[in-house]
Amino acid sequence: MLKRIHLKLRSPDGQSLGILTIVGAFIMTFCSYTSPAFYFDTSPDNNAFFTVGKAMMNGIVPYKDIFEQKGPYVYFLHGLAYLVSSRSFLLIFLYEIATVTAAMFFVYKIAKLLNATELPALLTALLSPLLFLYHPYYDYGDTVEFFTLPLLLSLIYLIVLLDRRHFAVSHWWYVAQGAIVGIVFLSKYTLLGAWIVFYLLVVGRLLVKRQWRQLGRVIGWSAAGFLLTTVPWLIYFTATGSLRAFINVYILFNTKVYLTSSVAAFANLVQSVTLVSQFYWGNVLFFALGVVGTLIVIFQPTIFRSNFGRGLYLASALGCDLLALYGYQAGSVYQYYQLIYFGFFVLPFIYFCLLFFRHVPLPAADAPFPILATLILSLFLVLGVNNNVTNSKVFPNNTSITEKQTTKPQQPAQLEFGRIMRRDNPTGTRLTLLNYGSIDMGFYTASGAVPTTYFFQNYNIPQSAAPQILQSQRDVISRHQVEWVVLNTPAGKTVKQWQGGSGRITSGNLNPGTSKLAKTLTRHYRQVAQHTQVFEGVNVTYWLYQRK
Predict the structure, then answer these.
(1) Could you give the CA distance from residue 509 to residue 529 in angstroms, rounded to a whole number?
(2) Alpha carbon 130 to chain centroid distance?
(3) Each residue of 156-181: pLDDT tens digit?
(4) pTM of this prediction?
């Protein structure tokens, strides 16, 4: 066994994987907010995932005891991260390294499947991170879309493999894809478009051809994989009496409240097509890879050898793109939703890279110089499409940390308030906190507080769609049920002055207004600290209150 592992590591694939892992670690250090090179991950979504994961590891049941609308795998991963490091995203950072490494390795394997030799395949893989880390589609990192990319690339690899081997592939491929479907379904089901189309077409083809044995093989092994990743959650929700809550929140709330469109199914489909079209027309690179590149690869005999393979790839790409934005209206689409599109940029990207390398004289043996030169070029390209490094510790006292003009080292509001809460919390009592009016601003993470309220944060939906959320938070404050309250206002506005905007969260993760709450808040709580920093281009002041 050890000898086999040693041989694998010394093989060309093993050596390439080692290089890609080192590259992935270096790139993610400066591109992901989960990295220790950043002061703090200020992403609202990431902190919400971490907060629910932490709650889950403290016996609180998602959906039933605490409200959040992503799938349980997201919270389980972040719960593990909490167990590894209770106030940082260290495990998520390592998982992001694994994710980008896996994505690059699939690029390498797909290139080899298309008959590329070792060196061009490796060089192509080294260039590919610019697709996976393209800002703002890759923003803070730690999104379900990003983690799904290598899983989607495994499906693309399988589509090409099926085309070349006339469906003669190992049953483990179907087990793996079935398991992936279960994981994605219980993470963010709008990302399942490619797999839905893939299985519909493959099963349909086998039915038409009456290949019953092969049909049973595909369905049976895929179902086995799917059950492997879904049944444990069914047992968990049944055992905790939370199955109804899971369905109400994850399925019904997401489809009835969180999606912004209320028109008919066909109109939603047309709307989704419009949004996808606008995405491709909005950028020359996206159009070149997503439209022109896709048309080229599906008609290239060196890529696909059958019409079914071509159709399967094209239909899966369309299914992926359309379902990802199904039910959303223009103006309500967050750009990170569209990162999943980049998975289907990979095959055209590989084709164009290999076409280029055929016209460049590359050495046949080991070639450190081309690898080093391509690596430097890749880093240059990544930093060209992702400027997250400017908010890292490489640039001390940047605006995402503080608006103070000082040379004295500063820390963001999250770390400053977290230290105050841990230091000044009454001795012998549990640290309790309410994040008022905004999506999780990171103070649960920084302080170590475990949420004690069902609506521990607000959400990106109109207040009129779910008025119980803010009402519940106001009740917590009026009954002074928590020791600490954190809220925000635009810089220059006090809590009494901030009247809000449209009745929902606005740019900068600003709450819908605090002026009506101010009297109740100051009756039961006193201001302890305030801190101003830039969040998503908005100058935001954070306020910390402690119970009197």
Answers:
(1) 19
(2) 16
(3) 999 999 999 988 899 999 999 999 99
(4) 0.95
